[in-house]
Design brief:
The complex is a heterodimer. Chain A is α+β, with helices and mostly antiparallel strands. Chain A has five helices and eight strands, in the order βααββαββαβαββ. The chains are: A alpha+beta, B mainly beta.
Amino acid sequence: MGAPPTESTEGTVVFTDIVGFTEYTALRGDTEAIALLAMQERFVLEALPPRARIVKELGDGLLIWFEDACEALQTALVLQQTFERASAETEVPLWVRMGIHSGRQTRWGNDLVGHDVNVAARVVDVASPGEVLVSEATMHQIQDRLPDIVFEELGPVVMKGIPDAMRLYRALPDLS
Amino acid sequence: MSRDSRILSIPGHAELHVRTRSGRVSIVAEERSDVSVESDAPLRDDKVEVDPRGRASITSSRGGSGWLEIRCPAGTDVGVGTVSGNVELAGPLGAVKVITVSGHIEVERAETLDARSVAGSIEVSSCVGRCQLQTKSGRAICGTAAEAQASTLSGMIRLAQIAGNVSAQSVSGKIDIGMRSAGDVKVQTMSGAVTVAVPHGMKPAAHLRSMTTRPRVDVEEGNDFQIRVQSLSGKIEVVPS
């Protein structure tokens, strides 16, 4: 059987991660845990713009690809509001953190691989529940196109396996 | 290994950024106008520079268990990024941001703080403004702060003397909150035990929800401030301080 075809692409990768999913499964059982995953996926599918797609499910997280960095960030912030509302209304802890990084990816069959995908995975590691963090590369793509969003720079971030230190930014809706 | 040191002149308000993979980083804020950098290894291998705005950057690519000790003016804004090095910050600092993967973080006094460690603990004595702490498995402890926000998976959270709003979230870690004055409290946990200590004479409105245990309120309720706690299975207590 031959290797899947590869193709280079540019875009923005969003990783989501449900915080405490393992503990929730232990506390509430598999059926409720699967319902939590399904809830996340349903909200994501409802919020995705036309050219974006869920590349794959990663246990309790998702790898999502967007053509446009602004669409990626706007979608992520809308989703966080949706998740928070759902958590408050249902008492189901849909505590999700998200990391966003833009760059070049390689399509490998239906999957997406490459250094910039790995970086996006590292960005989500730094995020708190309910938070959306974006990399400097994503900030460059967004420039000043999203005036309704404020960005707070975190400190210099040195990540395991990533040679250079990065700047990360917390993205928040501008409520002023 | 030979020690090395350097003095950096800083024009105006100092800002310090330190990046290193491993080894201890110690920063001491004190009455001085320059920045002194001392290391257990030659600094020629590190990138040490100051830009015209007073922003000093120290980037070290060394591994191992070395150390970097920096003395800077009181009120310096500080950013530190490490993978495995412990970070110790002493003296009165300005806005502080620290991110480490597995190192421990200790902060004596900051104007504002955002400290994140994946596997290490975070201990803060005093934060004048907003104190934000995040760890996965370590402890997150803050002595005093104007406002505090903390999250952890399995580590414990202790926010001892908070003057204003508090937000805390854990998966299984215990959460202890002590209020110094009226401020709204929001806590979410799956299985961690939650205790909120209320100052003498204050009457909070307590909205406590646990799916498996009966919350306990040992203070007179009123409307001085809100306490909202949501838990799946952890014990919830509101007690006098």
